[in-house]
Amino acid sequence: MARAVSTSRKAVNTALAWGVALLIAFPILWTFLTSFKPEPQAVASPPVWFGFDWTVRNYVDVQNQRDYFDYFWNSVILALGSTALGLVIAIPAAWSMAFVPGRRTKDLLMWMLSTKMMPGVAVLVPIYLIFIQLGLLDTRIGLVVVLMLINLPIIVWMLYTYFREIPGEILEAARMDGASLGREILYVLTPMAIPGIASTVLLNIILAWNEAFWTIVLTTTNAAPLTKFISGFSSPQGLFYAKLSAASTMAIAPILIMGWFSQKQLVRGLTFGAVK
Amino acid sequence: MTMLTRALLGATALCACGFAAAAQETTTLTIATVNNGDMIRMQGLADAFTEANPNIELEWVTLEENVLRQNVTTDIATNGGQYDVITIGTYEVPIWGRQNWLVPLNDLPAEYDVDDLLPPIRAGLSVDDTLYAVPFYGESSFVMYRKDLAEAAGVTIPEQPTWDEIKAAAAAMNDPDAGIHGICLRGKAGWGENMAFLTTMANSYGARWFDENWQPQFDSPEWKAAITDYLDLMNNYGPPGASSNGFNENLTLFQQGKCGMWIDATVAGSFVTDPNNSTVADQVGFALAPDAGQGKRANWLWAWSLAIPSSSDAPEEAKQFLAWATSKDYANLVAETEGWANVPPGTRTSLYENPDYVAAAPFAQMTIDSINAADPNQPTRDPVPYTGVQFVAIPEFQGLGTTVGQEFSAALAGQKTADEALAAAQELALQEMTSAGYIQQ
């Protein structure tokens, strides 16, 4: 029987949820508003909320200074490429960990996660030297591999969690029907784990899109994504907040729109197996 | 004609075509810059360079100052060769020049007129008389003040003020109820933020970072006097939350009419007198940085400069670009297209002898006087083993300067007394210099 919730309680919960959502969304909202302000009003104290001279000048200036789409396409290629490559490696890895675990599987998973705890700058010089030797500096392929490696532990962990929710008996049945290992993963496991895989893909695209250490250090112009685009609009001297906000809005808009349209899949995937 | 002759002729023609193609081959220069008005303007005007040099293409990488420093350092240290021209400051040039990370620039063409570069700036970009970078724009620091507020308060700020006169003027102009603070100074921690200002203030009080044997000097009475006066000034007449204020925050406060005085970079002169962004554009007066009778004024010396990393595979083309971007012709080009007030300041003597420029920039004379008053090789009253006015040109300074800056920022925020901050600074500097091997135990 559903629990009865009073109207006043509902109202309080709704107000609370809106309050928290606004608090979380405030920086983005503020950036968005600032991007339409003239530079002096962007730093006015006390701040001007809505009664400023709205202008799209900052967007025009930003686009004139650097071509947004050069960076945008690099971001798309890096995010999609690293996620796809990650899936190719992580699906078999997660399958073996979930369905044929060994004595050291848990340790292996923990070790994979522990690599996320190391600050990237600690291995900057060796990675940079490897990139020089292999001629990978400022190339998309180099960045795709690095981003894939950075996010691989998360992909494996997420897929492992989803796969464990799938009864092994179904895979066993497929095997008894004569399915090879590849067919078992491709035609039986993967379709059943689609919500989990979808949310893993979405989350990793977001993570790869926002990665702002390696993408800035290992690129100059050819493979530079939107993170590099934004970083050029911060200035040591002079007013820059409005233009920086415009550049930031342009950089986060695609991922925000993608997140908005795929929120159903994201929530479904993230709560997959939570209710039995 | 025999087959052989024909074949030879054909081969020769092919080779000739190949050589012709090679001669036409373009070189791409990757240029790393910071995002400021002068650099962005240069990107806009760079077509003039590529039209005159059709075999050279330019690619720009614009980065935030600290990101640029990190990227360029990594690239040069590992011989990565990602950049052909880099934008660096007077802090890096002596350090990187000594390590042979930069291409020497002593062979610039005669028409470049290297002797026209302002002597203190040139000295700051040279190691043992070898020039390692050419200045794109240079700056010192000076006092900017509100003429209307000074007049209303009945104070006169002389062209060469002392710290006592600055203190008196700050007290007279301070009117927090009307939202006006007597003085705005940097408080945000960082070697290039509060320590740039505090080091020059300490220099003017006769203090120094280290003695000739690299012993830290924060326990000296000169440092104590400087920090005590700084805290008194800011606590009594400064804006609230000043420990978070750097250049940009103070610029905003001053432009909005909330500061009686502001002591900071001479490059701010053009910002505060720009009627499009400043509400007090027609009320700004300028004076030299203050002194305390110790023979040194509290003014710094900085130049954003262009250099060629030794890992570049096109140093000759890069030199061509450097010579163009910092030439007299470039200054004329900016003047033609954007007006004289927008010409990058603080690099060449000829600019300050140009009546058009002096007429267009009311801060010109004060800027050149401030730059000429700075000596990067003898920055302090007493002798020191280092170069640099508002910094110490050793690799350890970035980290040490910022840590010490955090102590003084904490003192400004009221979390520590001046004595506690100075004692902590002394301890930190002693540890760093000992572990880095400057002090032998």
UniProtKB/TrEMBL annotation, chain A:
Statement: the UniProt record of this protein carries the keyword Signal: no
BP-aspect Gene Ontology terms: transmembrane transport
Keywords for this protein: Cell membrane, Membrane, Transmembrane, Transmembrane helix, Transport
Transmembrane segments: 12-33, 71-96, 117-135, 141-163, 184-209, 240-261
Cellular component, GO, one term: plasma membrane
Intracellular or extracellular location(s): Cell membrane
Record's bilayer topology term: Multi-pass membrane protein
InterPro entries xrefs: BP-dep_ABC_trans_perm, MetI-like, MetI-like_sf
UniProt keyword Disulfide bond present: no
Domain ABC transmembrane type-1 intervals: 72-262
Pfam families according to UniProt: BPD_transp_1
PROSITE patterns from the UniProt entry: ABC_TM1 (PS50928)
Family of the protein in this entry: Belongs to the binding-protein-dependent transport system permease family.
PANTHER family in alphabetical order: INNER MEMBRANE ABC TRANSPORTER PERMEASE PROTEIN YCJP, MALTOSE TRANSPORT SYSTEM PERMEASE-RELATED
Record-given protein name: Carbohydrate ABC transporter permease
Organism: Rubellimicrobium roseum
From TrEMBL, chain B:
Classification via InterPro entries: Bact_solute-bd_prot1, SBP
Domain of life: Bacteria
Signal peptide: 1-22
UniProt xrefs under CDD domains: PBP2_TMBP_like (cd13585)
SUPFAM superfamilies on file: Periplasmic binding protein-like II (SSF53850)
Keywords, ordered alphabetically: Signal
Subcellular location, record wording: Periplasm
Pfam families: SBP_bac_1
GO cellular component terms, semicolon-separated: periplasmic space
Family: Belongs to the bacterial solute-binding protein 1 family.
PANTHER family: ARABINOSE-BINDING PROTEIN-RELATED (PTHR43649), DIACETYLCHITOBIOSE BINDING PROTEIN DASA (PTHR43649:SF12)
Name of this chain's protein: Sugar ABC transporter substrate-binding protein
Species of origin: Rubellimicrobium roseum
Taxonomic lineage: Bacteria, Pseudomonadati, Pseudomonadota, Alphaproteobacteria, Rhodobacterales
